[in-house]
Amino acid sequence: MIYTPHAWSFSPGATRNVWFRGTCERVLALWTHRIICVSEDEMRLALDAGISQARCAVVLTGISSHAAVTTAVLGPEPRRRRRVLFVGRFDYQKGFDIYLEVMRLLGERAEGIVAGSPIVSKPMDIPIPPNVRTLGWCSPDQVLALYREADLLLMPSRFEGLPMVALEAMQAGVPIFASNAGPMREVVEDGVSGRLFPGAPPDQIAAEIASTSDEQLRRFGQAGRDIFQRRFTAERMSRDMLEAYRAVLGESGASNSPVGARWRSMLDSTVRPRATI
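Below the sequence we write its predicted structure tokens.
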């Protein structure tokens, strides 16, 4: 039994039944051979919750490096409003309300582009500022086009696992301005590939967006792309995930069973990732 939580249900920022959720995860972990944490922060949360370190391994999330991203990291065009992108669910976890407040504070200095809709929460009863354009859910190709248009991606999340959206933006050379929630500290290097904001205060974020120069945004985007290539490709993730599965088979002795033998044969025959995981 191998389990990947991708954002613990008891993460800081979760609002309901946190103690009960943590108890359930701790009990279910007793029947789990390995828990794959998608970030170092998820590993820390597991240990703090009383889950055994021996049951945990870290495999950083990755995305396919051959997904066609041809964005030139040129920075914003001069003499136009700054384009601030949001991609994700319109809910409390993702901080959509914070995004809207930032855009309200920026006013005519920025244009908001939003791809997403409510999924796990009731629609937020927050007026959309006139400088924000909402597009609903978009196809991968449409989202890729939005990265090409954007000057920066704003992610004011209250908690995260390790968000795919951030990796897509980095691959596209788009700077990230984000809360410092959990694993965002492992993704964004503050002052190098973007900016991190403890607690995601809207006034501070808006001021930073307005004051950051076009040249600085260009440097952030290039640095983010370099970090992606070093740490967050699907190829690297697949290698690490295969090693994690091999370790479980070896520790449990399952590789000697017929089912385990089939698994080991499959793992050994894997040469490269066939899809983004």
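The longest strand covers residues 82-87.
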